[in-house]
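Researcher: Please predict.
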Amino acid sequence: MNKFLYVFFGILAIAGIVFIGQKTIFKPNQKAQYQSAKVERGAIVSTMSASGQVLSSNALTITTSATGVVKNVFVKDGDQVVSGQKIAEIELDSSGQQKNASAWSSYLSAKTSLDSANASLYTLQSDMFSKWKTYTDLATNSTYQNADGSPRIEQRVLPQFTTAQDDWFAAEAKYKNQQVVISQAQAAVSATWASYQASSSIIPAPMAGTVGNITIVKGLVLASSSTSTSQTVAVIQSDNLPIASFNISEVDVSHVLPGQKATITLDSISGKTFTGTVETVDRIGIVTSGVTNYPAVIQFDTKTRELLPNMSATASIIVDQKDNVLLVPSGAVITQNGQHVVRILKNGNVSEVGVEIGLTSSTQTEIVSGVSEGDDVVTGTVTQGRQTSGVSPFSGGLRPGGFGGGGGALRPGGFGGGR
């Protein structure tokens, strides 16, 4: 019996030690501490980001479809040229001569068609004016017009009048159709002339600029290829500013307007930021896989040889900016049930205040009303827990923590997390 009592009281003693140890180890001693920032006056810039690519770096590739041997190269990398200046000359082989002669023949044929279309236009114009004169003479006589100049509607349904009117309308329609024919003929002339120049023995500069990336040398053989009808000769860089196109989402497009400034970065050109101006915004949009984007064209403010067509780019467009407004860190603003609130810290106490917000940037938010300059707004909280170590009844030594562990480190919590 005594042995049983010893065991019983021993178990109670161990249980008591464990209970006291747990109380000692897990005894809370925590105090909330707040992170805050003062409401300040300053400037804020609201931007929106968009991705896209360089459309034109104002570098034009000079090509030729001529075949033969390069006879002369008249320029070198870095030379300034004017439009039409000789870049190179090729001694055409038989295939090149045949192609060039065929292109010249096509050009002459297109030019003849244009001349014929212009001649027909003059004839149709004369006929139109003649029919118009017949109609107006008829329409202004007393049979079809009252003394006060108003039309006699009941008479103007007679065949003599309607025939004259229809003849005039028909002649006018033919004249307008011939103008379309002339436009087509002019386009054919331009196309055939371009083909003739491409096959010519002389390679001219298509525009003024700086020549670079010359790929031909004297004596090089230019042969026809099954995969390409033309060969690159050089690249010419103009003095115009580069442009790029960026996709704007349907949420942001209403805020983007021509004339807004932007900063542009490119993955391929690290460490550099370019500036530009929004020139156009396509408000019709392009739908791809159910997503609508609205292309905006931005022109760069400066030129650089590093920019190449089709390079990926990211633009940060400045949609609005204000000076001398009340600002708080964006993390201080909380949305509750559609309303914006901030937490004001005063004398160690925190209270919620409804606010009206304005512009937002990546780090700051404008407060239109609800707080005053100099107020302390809560941006986060940290809880400092003090851990008391005790003696384990089982190990006989000191060990940190208890069941579940947990030391005295700072941990984030509270409003919006700690920083």
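Model: Residues 385-419 have pLDDT under 50 and may be disordered.
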